[in-house]
């Protein structure tokens, strides 16, 4: 059902080179779509397994961050958390030391807005541009090339990066100044993380009361409880084709990543003076799953 890569009808950057860092669950499909849309991709991941799997699916895999960044027109990072992005950008042989001056770095990772701002400053000092372009749509959206990107930074930089983002997704939103892309992303994921738990609790209750979770989902999908976790990214095995639930809850959005995002949303709420009671509860539930050893499972495993 899901295309392995998605070619756009429009013409993109005619063999512009993208250095891609982090060829994991999201990154591999994003690289494949960039290639299908005419970009030359030089991808790197610190994990051998990720490099092998990306190479087997047609990505040109290189041997270091420096090789990925060298002579690239754009660098796209798709890394787990703030510390990984900081390391890849600022280490000896990292992006800031290896890319050409003028390179635009599009960071699609979900990280601390403050950490992103610091890297924006460091990039400027190195003669480069670093903007926050976090994404939404999950592994299904990455495969189908329908991701939404939420960008923070100067309009001219967002515009310059848009052909690359459109080579991996469908919607590009300019949310405001640097960091505002991440604010939008955390707002979205706060809802997603709580929603998946609500869907899990609801379907478990229905099932234990004799209902069929697939029938209940068909009904909820056209009723007022409808949401992404019901009609697209269902936690029920064998209900929605291509979901991690159909793959023993592997290969999706890992529990450790939603836990990180809930934590980031709580920090942002504290910083901004907003209430985060339900986010805290969701954080505690996902943290407990991690304690039980389910950190690498897809977050729909909460069901
Ligand atoms: P992932 O763990 O599958 O992939 C990240 C990859 O980065 C890993 O393969 C890891 O080895 C690699 N990596 C770590 N440090 C590196 C470095 N210094 N250089 C090169 N590679 C390095 O995670 P993912 O699910 O692909 O998510 C990536 C980012 O996108 C995260 O910030 C996540 O929160 C965000 N995100 C994920 C989803 C999703 O559904 N999976 C959706 C939206 C956003």
What does it look like?
The chain has 303 residues and is an alpha/beta fold. Helix content is 47%, strand content 13%. The chain is built from 13 helices and eight strands. The chain has a five-stranded parallel beta sheet. Strands 6-7-8 form a three-stranded mixed beta sheet. Helix 8 (155-166) links the parallel strand 7 and strand 8 (169-176). Helix 4 (82-90) runs parallel beside helix 6 (113-125) and helix 9 crosses helix 12. The two termini are 24 Å apart. Residues 9-13 have low confidence and may be disordered. Bound molecules: nicotinamide-adenine-dinucleotide (NAD). Residues 21-22, 24-27, 44-47, 50, 65, 78-80, 84, 87-88, 109-110, 135-136, 138-139, 252-253, 257, 261 line the site of nicotinamide-adenine-dinucleotide (NAD).
